[in-house]
Amino acid sequence: MKCDLNRISLLLRTIYYLKMKQIYYRLYYITRTKWRKLYHFKYPLTLKSQVNIINLSPSIPSSLIYQYNRFTFLNIEHHFDKKIDWNYSGYGKLWTYNLTYFDYLNQNAFSKQDGIRLINDFIDQSDAIKDGYMPFPISLRGINWIKFLSQHKIKDQKINDSLYAQYMILIDNIEYHILGNHLLENAFSLLFGAYYFQDEKLYLKVKEIFSAELKEQILEDGAHFELSPMYHQIMLFRVLDCVNLIQNNNWKNDELLDLLISKAEIMLGWLNTMTYENGDIPLLNDSTNNIAPTTRELNAYATALNVKTEKIELSKSGYRKIKNGRYEMIIDVGNIGPDYIPGHAHSDTFNFELYMDGKPFIVDTGLSTYETDMRRTLERSTLSHNTIEVDSMNQSEVWDGFRVGRRAKIIHLEEKENYIEATHDGYRHIGVLHTRKFTSHERAIIIEDSIESSGVHTNTAYLHFYPGLSPKVKGNNIILLGITITIYNANSLDIEEYGYSGEFNRIIKAFTAKIVFSDHLKMEMQL
Fold first, then answer.
1. DSSP conformation class of 380
2. Which of 429, 430, 431, 437 is nearest to 412 (CA)?
3. Cβ atoms 116, 167 nearer than 8 A
4. Pairwise CA distance, residues 217 & 249, whole Å
5. Closest CA to 13 of 406, 394, 338
6. Sign (positive/negative) of CA torsion 353, 354, 355, 361?
7. Residue 496, strand partner residues
8. Structure confidence at residue 1 as a pLDDT band (50, 70, 90)
9. Residue 64 bridge partners (DSSP)
10. What's the pLDDT at 156?
11. 192 pLDDT exceeds 80?
């Protein structure tokens, strides 16, 4: 009974932050599905259509993920000997989704014949396809099909009638119950569908979504509000593709163009500010490598579209970047993201990454899976980030893969030259406030932690080192690469192994410093 009550309390703490719109649409879609089952409702999978082959400038090609019925997604390869199983679930749902996104149509030198064959195979199996007809896969597939069909000037009635039917399913199932990047992905795709089919209904829905969501989801400093650098790259790519679409086609003149260009410029400014000098992005929240277009590719694409970069100062995103002498440091002193869609957030308040001489040194532990399992729970947890864990608890109550109950909030932030101080209340329910201070000099970084509490707690700091680095402990010093990190006021200092995940489904052994202390901790890095 106690376990059930705890579960109910956790669920209520999670639901509390949802928007009424999300709750309404979740209930509406569930109820509608049940009613439709009673009279065996099915969407038509083909609808008579008329198309306008559109013009597009070259975009960013996808990675090499398909060869001769051999698909590689998320670093997992699978070969279908004969018939492709579009519902194949042997590697988890995200792998299945990638199979149905059809991003591979737009990899370099992908043949027209192979593309038509794969599209027709998908259409021929449509009656049996499940996950591929969910709104998110439809959204990504719609863009990829239209890009491919337009590039090769293919005008195939069977394909177009299937695609039009898919867009009618999408517009009837827009992801208002999720919102965030899902809703924007729906709108980006609907814009491609509107232009391709010259459909007013689709276009009016795009205008409605863009007017509200681009304003809310792109913060004042240019960050996408879910605060994942990887998803920011993906969202920027979509915005640039939409700019490409409108610039090269005159159906609606320039109604949305100014809005999209203004968002692209500030998003590019944020991304360039956050990207390290070697081209890496920080792997904060749900971020990993080899999924999104790189910052370099996005800059080149923007330049080709005459989209400029707007210079920005990091603010609303809660991230700060320090460049001083040999090092670059990115610090998180913000909230975990939008309260109503924190699915890609981690319990990582006051986390930081440190690059030395253009190379990763202290890093986020990364992302290897979206499966709802112990590995994802670990990767989202506080102990997997370079911050403070109190009593082996998470600062923010991450659970069930993509959910967050109680969450840490920044209640104090002070910034001066070479100095940042912040306090969060993620442990308020156990009577604890955590304050962290960052002081930066050309050849030194000082990090000080204070735990304010009337009780006694076990406080643990973590420093995760990049794979290949072997820290050594000498007294109260951690020494590696000629750098000394002196630890003051520690009760214990140990080096342990952890799994670094710089890509999906790849885990590399690395080392973390685990530092237990009472109320105050000081770490001084001599660089």
1. H
2. 437
3. no
4. 26
5. 406
6. negative
7. 512
8. low
9. none
10. 97
11. yes
Give the whole-angstrom CA distance, residue 47 versus residue 242.
25
Largest Cα separation within the chain, whole Å, is: 76
Strands annotated E in 55-141: 66-67, 70-73, 76-79
Describe the chain by its helix, strand, coil percentages, rounded to 5.
Answer: 35, 25, 40
- Token reading at 72: 């590689």
The torsion angles phi and psi of 318, rounded to 5 degrees, stand at: 85, -5
Three-state SS string across 13-36, please? HHHCCCCHHHHHHHHHHHHHHHHH
Q: What one-letter code names the amino acid at 354?
A: L
Reduced to 3 states (helix: H, G, I; strand: E, B; else coil), residue 100 is helix
Residue 421 C-alpha from the chain's centroid: 27
Q: CA 80 to CA 71: how far, in whole Å?
A: 8
The number of angstroms, rounded, from the C-alpha of 11 to the middle of its chain's C-alpha atoms is: 23
Q: What is the DSSP letter of 396?
A: S
Residue 463 is predicted with a pLDDT of 98
- Compute the C-alpha angle 69/73/77, nearest 5°: 55
| Burial of residue 81, with CB atoms counted within 10 A of its CB: 0-12 exposed, 13-18 middle, 19 or more buried | exposed
Q: Which residue has the tokens 């290949």?
A: 468
What number of residues does the chain have? 527
Cβ contact 516:476 at 8 Å: no
CA-based nearest residue to 368, from 252, 254, 259, 502:
502
Q: Which residue has the tokens 């009760």?
A: 491
Q: Give the three-class secondary structure for 293.
A: coil
CB-based burial, 311-344: b 16+ in 10 Å, e otherwise: ebebeebbbbbbeeeebbbbbbbbbbbbeebbbb
- In tens, the pLDDT along 407-450 reads 999 999 999 999 999 999 999 999 999 999 999 999 999 999 99
Pairing type for strands 388-390 and 398-399 reads unpaired
Q: What is the pLDDT of residues 373-412, one digit of tens each?
A: 999 999 999 999 999 999 999 999 999 999 999 999 999 9
Structure-token pair, residue 308: 């400029």
What pLDDT, in 10s, does the model give residues 288-336? 999 999 999 999 999 999 999 999 999 999 999 999 989 999 999 999 9
3-state class (DSSP) for residue 57: coil
Measured CA to CA, the distance from residue 146 to residue 139 in angstroms comes to 11
Reported as a single tens digit per residue, the pLDDT across 241-290 is: 999 999 999 998 788 999 999 999 999 999 999 999 999 999 999 999 99
Burial classification of residue 442, based on how many CB atoms lie within 10 Å of its CB (0-12 exposed, 13-18 middle, 19 or more buried): exposed
Angle (CA) 412-415-420 rounded to 5° is 80
